[in-house]
Design a protein that fits this description.
The complex is a heterodimer. Chain A is mostly loops. Chain A contains 1 helix and 2 strands, in the order ββα. A two-stranded antiparallel sheet of chain A has the order 1-2. Chain B has a single domain, classed as Ferritin, core subunit, four-helix bundle (Ferritin, Up-down Bundle), CATH 1.20.1260. Chain B is elongated and about 70 Å long. The relative contact order of chain B is 0.19. Classes of the chains: A little secondary structure, B mainly alpha. At the A-B interface, helix 1 of A face helix 6 and helix 7 of B.
């Protein structure tokens, strides 16, 4: 199972809220929270992919996509 | 001393004429959690941190300057050809009357950078915890900047910078573990 780096919660919706409610909110829980100390000999990206991703190690890769135009 | 390489750490391409994004990007240029604050914080703290982690602060502080150059390049590209009308529409007219199109160390709201953004407590754990917090705040700032543009090329460079904050945060967390000097010891409960 792919480990998710996003957590979801559902804030309280009041009966008199002035704006249409956002029912689902998310927050990021990136990889560094779950690796107290990087173990040796982890698998590596090839150099080109490592440059593109910003890290040499898949275990440290944390993708993020823009919310522009995607908010409910 | 430093050896300068006349290239950016990661390519910066801006595909959309959006001077307002330049204003927002200033948060990472001269903001409290920006690259300038990060570089100066780490390169200053390194003198009074235990030997084992001096090199880490040196390396990360140096890389922050490389990130600062990338942000500067983005801001410059987004403003250099903007007309006065475009600058005004982007909310950059107060910037123009003070600086023309020059870059300046201020945040997105126009507040000038100040050393009160950073700290050197001298206590290694306090300093490293501040550094971890700084990396997480910079990561969050990059997320909100990525959210505020639909320019995929600009997003690409910002995603790279966000990933570097993730890696730096982990390295500072590892530095704390090194200073705790508790790894590999047998624990009996």
């Amino acid at each position: 199972m792919e480990f998710s780096q996003v957590r979801v919660y559902h804030p309280f919706v009041g009966p008199f809220d002035p704006c249409p409610p956002i029912l689902t909110k998310t927050y990021q829980t990136p990889v560094q929270l779950f690796i107290p100390f990087q173990p040796p000999n982890l698998p590596q990206f090839n150099p080109q992919e490592a440059l593109f991703k910003g890290t040499l190690w898949p275990a440290l890769y944390s993708p993020y996509e823009s919310k522009w135009g995607k908010e409910q | 001393m430093w050896v300068y390489e006349k290239k950016l750490q990661y390519p910066v391409r801006v595909s959309k004429c959006d001077p307002h994004m330049a204003k927002l990007l200033l948060e990472q240029y001269g903001g409290a959690d920006g690259e300038l604050a990060a570089a100066l914080r780490y390169l200053n703290q390194r003198y009074t941190i235990p030997d084992k982690v001096i090199g880490l602060l040196n390396d990360i502080g140096t890389e922050e300057f490389a990130h600062l150059e990338m942000i500067a390049t983005m801001v410059y590209k987004l403003t250099k050809d903007a007309t006065l009308e475009q600058l005004k529409a982007a909310g950059l007219d107060p910037h123009y009357v003070n600086h023309d199109r020059a870059l300046f160390y201020q945040n997105a709201a126009g507040d000038p950078w100040t050393a009160t953004y950073i700290q050197a407590k001298g206590d290694p754990i306090a300093d490293l915890y501040e550094d971890i917090a700084a990396e997480e705040k910079a990561r969050a700032t990059y997320q909100w900047l990525i959210d505020m543009t639909d320019d995929v090329d600009l997003q690409d460079s910002l995603k790279f910078l966000r990933e570097r904050e993730v890696v730096h945060s982990l390295r500072f967390r590892e530095a704390v573990e090194i200073l705790k000097d508790d790894r590999g010891t047998k624990k009996f409960f």
